[in-house]
Specification:
The complex is a heterodimer of chains A (414) and B (228).
Chain A lengths: L1 H13 L1 H39 L3 E4 L9 H5 L22 H10 L3 E15 L2 E10 L1 H7 L2 H4 E4 L3 H4 L3 E5 H7 L6 E5 L5 E10 L4 H6 E5 H7 L8 E6 L5 H12 L3 E3 H4 L1 H39 L1 H10 L3 H36 L19 H28 L2 H8 L1
Parallel strand pairs in A: 3-8, 5-7
Antiparallel strand pairs in A: 1-9, 1-10, 2-3, 2-6, 2-9, 4-7, 5-8, 6-7
Chain B lengths: L1 E11 L5 E11 L3 E5 L6 H8 L7 E6 L2 E2 L5 H11 E4 L11 H12 L4 H14 L15 H12 L6 E5 L7 H16 L4 E5 L3 H4 L4 E6 L2 E6 L5
Parallel strand pairs in B: 3-8, 3-9, 6-7, 7-8
Antiparallel strand pairs in B: 1-2, 1-4, 4-5, 9-10
Helix pairs in contact in B: 3-4, 3-5
Classes of the chains: A alpha+beta (414), B alpha/beta (228).
Chain lengths: 414, 228
């Protein structure tokens, strides 16, 4: 093996420039793969962590995934049924027995749950009207499932309790209304209930939609505002282990019957985009590596062609077909490994270079740069691909070399 | 001691031409055999058959009493590595490796000797062929005669029972050619080893202890058998 490696190195060294070109091809493919994968992974990881950070991991809603079947449909499951003049029942929406459900959920390990009631309201201050979503929360429970406590810039969540009809609003919303801490706004719900509410806190999440259109009050207060006493229309959950979200959501839905969405389901559109992004990335870099593999195929073929005499003498000396095949396979692998190592180095430089780029715009989330993922897995995948491609590219010429008949070569040379 | 036994060996190409027709011969240790004949008479083909580089269409070749018919390619390769040595008209040294490294290739491939012993053996062979000073040189830095002697040293690396040479002096001047034949005669003299060489040079063939003459793939004369 050592001998074959020495022979392989000797043969490649003879074609130094050509070897260098194929090695560079592999290196570039690997480097681009690493840089692009790092960029994409970094962005996706950041995005997902933002989602996980900001949104509830699981949301239980006051609706069912599929409409309840009509009684007649249950009675005659196989029949074709036409119902005329069906009137929807006007019942109060909300999660039934929310208190019991929360007790069950909180008994699960690693789960924090909070009941909320969301509804819209028109906030009026002076001559300004701004419509907003008001979420009624139980402060003690809500801070366990959301980052509201962390996001507060003025006031405290606890002030909701100490003030009658207290309201916490986003920084953008405060600007639009022109209110400051301590001001009183007039809130009107679609049901016509009007309440005087005092601004007891201002928060900033970095997400424009929330900062400009979200307010929080006590659950009780919002139930009055929305004219829905004792109604909870969502239960939001936060998990210690985010990866369990989807399975747990399915369990909860099966148990309670309420529509239960994990963060993955709620963001399926983004996550699907990531899948497509990754597919594009892999095909582009795969194409680069494919080209690099052709380069390796080319050089190994050339070496085999040039080295027919050496192959013949090695075989006459007693090298087996396997030895010869391995000899040229090794050359491909050597080129692949060199390319992978060089590519990892170049890729690292590219990552650090991209990390230096500044966009000069102050994105709402406070990011003006690429977020790069520096994961060893990316390097491993890129190198593995490159070496595999190099090996496969070398197999064909290596087999040709192994099959060479020394007698014919010697005859031709004599 | 009979080293090599060829029995009614015939080699036909798939396209029809017969290269070797019914050759029967046996070679013993100490013999220095010259195969002669006009070009196209099948000298080299016979040598390749005797050297297990090629398989006969009919007949059998025995090496040291062992029938090689039906052996796998790998088994034949192993026999060539351990028991046979080849020298060709062209030296076929690997250009990237020094004279010593070229000689060491078969030793290292066989892997019986440790690296130190192997190098000592390689130097001993080069010294025996008057190339001690050329050990570190690349083939392109050597003269034609020296290269061919390095090739002989490489053929002898694993101490083969049989040295086979195909027109080994074809690219050499008279003086170097004579030197090569002297070496062959010397190698055979010990009695352990046999040397078989193909040559078209009648004068050089005269130095061999036995001469086999081929015409159209058939052995027409075999002089001096057993004279070794």
């Amino acid at each position: 093996m050592k001998l074959l490696l020495a022979l392989a190195r000797g043969m490649l060294a003879r074609r130094r420039r050509q070897t260098l070109v194929s090695v560079s091809g592999v290196a570039l493919g690997v480097a681009f793969f690493i840089a692009i994968a790092s960029l994409m992974r970094g962005f996706q990881t950041y995005f997902v962590s933002q989602i996980i950070d900001v949104q509830p991991h699981i949301t239980i809603k006051d609706e069912r995934r599929n409409p309840l079947p009509q009684a007649v449909e249950i009675a005659y499951p196989e029949a074709a049924i036409a119902l005329n003049g069906v009137k929807p029942v006007d019942r109060i929406r909300g999660i039934r027995a929310a208190g019991d459900k929360i007790a069950i959920l909180e008994a699960m390990p690693g789960v924090a749950a909070a009941p909320i009631l969301t509804g819209s309201a028109l906030l009026r201050y002076g001559s300004r009207d701004v419509s907003a979503t008001v979420t009624g929360i139980d402060p003690q429970r809500y801070v366990q499932v959301a980052n509201l406590g962390k996001d507060m810039t003025q006031g405290r969540i606890e002030d909701l309790r100490s003030t009658a009809n207290g309201l916490i609003i986003g920084v953008g919303l405060a600007q639009r209304l022109g209110v400051v801490l301590g001001d009183t706004v007039n809130a009107v719900s679609p049901r016509g209930v009007a309440l005087q509410m005092k601004i007891v806190g201002i928060f900033r999440t970095g997400i424009v939609g929330l900062d400009q259109g979200q307010g929080y009050s006590l659950l009780k207060v919002n139930q009055i505002l929305q004219d829905r006493s004792n109604v909870v229309n969502q239960i939001v959950l936060r998990l210690a282990d985010v990866t369990r979200a989807e399975t747990l959501a399915r369990e909860i839905e099966a148990r309670f019957g309420d529509r239960t969405e994990s963060w993955e389901e709620q963001n399926a559109n983004f996550l699907n985009i990531f899948v497509i992004q990754n597919a594009i990335m892999y095909s582009v870099t795969g194409a680069i590596l494919l080209v690099a593999a052709f380069g390796i195929y080319n050089i190994i073929s050339t070496v085999v062609f040039e080295k027919t005499r050496d192959i013949a003498i090695l075989k006459s000396l007693g090298f087996t077909e396997r030895d010869i095949q391995l000899l040229f396979l090794l050359q491909g692998l050597v080129a692949g490994v060199l390319g992978a190592v060089l590519g990892c180095v170049i890729g690292t430089f590219m990552i650090e270079g991209l990390a230096q780029v500044r966009f000069g715009v102050d994105a709402p989330s406070g990011n003006d740069r690429f977020i790069m993922a520096r994961e060893w897995q990316i390097y491993a995948v890129a190198s593995g691909f490159a070496i595999l491609a190099a090996g496969i590219a070398a197999v064909i010429p290596a087999r040709r070399a192994a099959r060479l008949d020394p007698v014919q070569v010697v005859r031709g040379a004599a | 001691m009979t080293l090599l036994d060829a029995e009614d060996v015939t080699r036909k190409l798939p396209e029809g031409p017969v290269l070797v027709q019914g050759a029967t011969l046996s070679v013993s240790g100490g013999e220095f055999v010259a195969i002669t004949g006009p070009s196209g008479s099948g000298k080299s083909s016979l040598l390749y058959l005797l050297g297990l580089l090629d398989r006969p269409s009919v007949g059998r070749v025995r090496l040291e009493g062992r029938d090689t018919t039906g052996l796998s390619g790998d088994a034949l390769a192993a026999l060539r590595l351990a028991r046979l040595g080849f020298v060709f008209q062209f030296h076929f040294l690997l250009p990237e490796f020094s004279a010593l490294d070229n000689v060491l290739i078969p030793i290292r491939r066989r892997g019986v000797l440790d690296e130190r012993t192997a190098r000592a053996r390689g130097m001993e062979l080069l010294g025996m062929l008057g190339l001690a000073d050329a050990a570190a040189k690349l083939p392109e830095q050597l003269s034609g005669g020296m290269r061919q002697r390095v090739a002989i040293a490489r053929a002898l690396a694993n101490d083969p029972a049989l040295l086979l040479a195909d027109e080994p002096t074809g690219n050499l001047d008279t003086k170097n050619a004579a030197a090569v034949f002297d070496i062959f005669a010397e190698l055979a003299r010990s009695g352990e080893r046999a040397v078989i060489t193909v040559t078209h040079d009648a004068e050089l063939a005269g130095r061999a202890t036995r001469r086999i003459h081929l015409v159209d793939g058939r052995i027409v004369s075999d002089e001096g058998q057993g004279a070794g």
